[in-house]
Amino acid sequence: MLDQMQPTEFAQINPAYNSVFRPGRLSVGLVLPLEAYSVGAEPTLDGHLQAAQMAEELGFAALWLRDVPFNVPSFGDAGQIFDPFVYLGALAMATDRIALGTASVILPLRHPAHVAKAAATADQLSGGRLLLGVASGDRPEEYPAMNQSFDDRGARFRDSVGYIRAAGTAYPAHDSAQGTLPGNIDLLPKPHGTRLPMLVTGSSRQAPDWVAQNGDGWMTYPRNAAAQGQVIGDYRARVRAAGEPDKPVMQSLYVDIVDDPAAPPRPIHLGFRSGTDFLRGYLREIETLGVNHVALNLRFNQAPIDTTLKHLADIVLPDFS
Questions:
Q1: How far apart are CA 84 and CA 88, in angstroms?
Q2: What is the pTM of this model?
Q3: At residue 6, does pLDDT exceed 60?
Q4: Are the C-beta atoms of residues 2 and 290 closer than 8 Å to each other?
């Protein structure tokens, strides 16, 4: 159950972080593309900006982009195809209020200076609406294409986080395996808020204590209630043990919403097909477990996406606004 001794506020970092993540409360976002496509297929991205604008108008809290450099057929998912940082710039101009997140940037496949500059640019262009999810990557086929090794990606991930943090300060002095910031040059722009809010995905091949201490939050996956409550409790205990302020937890969830609100759940990949009654109950349950945000993925949704978005906005979002 949610720890009743949690502080009443998370750290104040930027407008997106401050609005999406609230202690003891759940907000609801969406994974892009807002389009159904089968395993092995590629999304069309037809009307993608209009769909993002609809999501904002309907009151969803965030839109999430994935970083998929190469389409790996054996993995079965090309993501939203567009480069996430270029796409963030387009979304920043097409929307006004909704948070824009990455879930997640694969740090070992990008130089941290490029990530720091692109992320701070997106944060500035959007008025502080960026949430930077980061990960170590899980597709071995991508690494040889960039002349990178797969086995040491955890060390490069950790090194990149330190570099990006340093680059957000003025004239940073920082030594890393990927370069030295000597203190007499600066990387611009700086983030809109106090820093880039970085959320660590899974373990990212780090020790649990490192994840708790170094991220601004934790991105995890759906589990049964007992397991989810246990891992969240463990994460927050480690945050406290590190002397850190409380930090948010978010999870992904694939859903296929059917017309009958009372339809019982049937499992699909990392989620379920159900009516809105079950979904509302599930979201209330994970809220009590300490989840602060859920990113819904409609990839396997069988109804028209715009119909489902409106249905969710009418039936589900009022519980979590």
A1: 6
A2: 0.96
A3: no
A4: yes
